Amino acid sequence: MATTAASVGIAVRTLLSVLACVMAAAVAYLLAVYGLSTCFDPSDWWMHVVLLDFCIITAGIGAWFAYKESSWIKGAAFYLLLFWTGSITTCGYIVLQFYKLSPEESSKDPLYFVFKRRERGDVMEHKKEFSAITARVIFSALGCLLLGTSIYALIIDGSPFQPKVLRPCLVTTLIDVSIHVVVFWVWVAYKESSWISAFFWIILLACFRSIAICVYIVRELFYLSPEQPISLIIFSKRNRQVLITFDEPWYMTIIINHVTCPNNA
């Protein structure tokens, strides 16, 4: 079991390293051959769709980073870097988290320890999160916005699979979005207990990208109780029980109150 977990960690780390190199090569080719002029065309609605797709995905990645890191300065710098370099930053950051794991963490459950924040002193600061209802509204609105924009682009510009639509900047951005989708594949495969369910969501992510991501996140938010922090959706059900029992301050407060004031229980 330990060997299997370690192999999964190595495989994911290697995959993301390769994808980061692919994206770096794609960006270098775009800048060297075409420049950024092909990225600015207000009449190109499919470019708007892809950019919106990219922004929604990076919003999800940025939310995870905000959970992982305590510093708002780091968060702002990361999101700025993420916006301009995309999946290069995402893959690089995740690979770095793998290298920070101890041998014991790598052999037990590397994905859990990569997703989980390492700091313990700032837990209460991270407790100031959106409510599950607010998060559901935000991601539902983002998913509907992308769906509406995609339908409008289809009506105005027709099929996205046309030579005039597939400009160099759009193709490069699509590569970036696709790499981010692969990152979400890893997350979904980690979260889902059934391979059938994981495969189903992976197919949806491949076909609908950010729309499917928003649907999946909203679905996971519905599983939370009102008093649970929304950061719990990051983890699988098995790891979530560990966090609830040992790590989350709201749960420990309930236990302490029960022990110190048994008559109030």
Automatic annotation (TrEMBL):
Pfam families: DUF1475. InterPro entries: DUF1475 (IPR009943). The chain crosses the membrane at residues 12-33, 45-66, 78-99, 133-156, 168-190, 196-218. The keyword Zinc-finger does not apply. Keywords: Membrane, Transmembrane, Transmembrane helix. This is Uncharacterized protein. It comes from Centaurea solstitialis (yellow star-thistle). The lineage of its organism: Eukaryota, Viridiplantae, Streptophyta, Embryophyta, Tracheophyta.
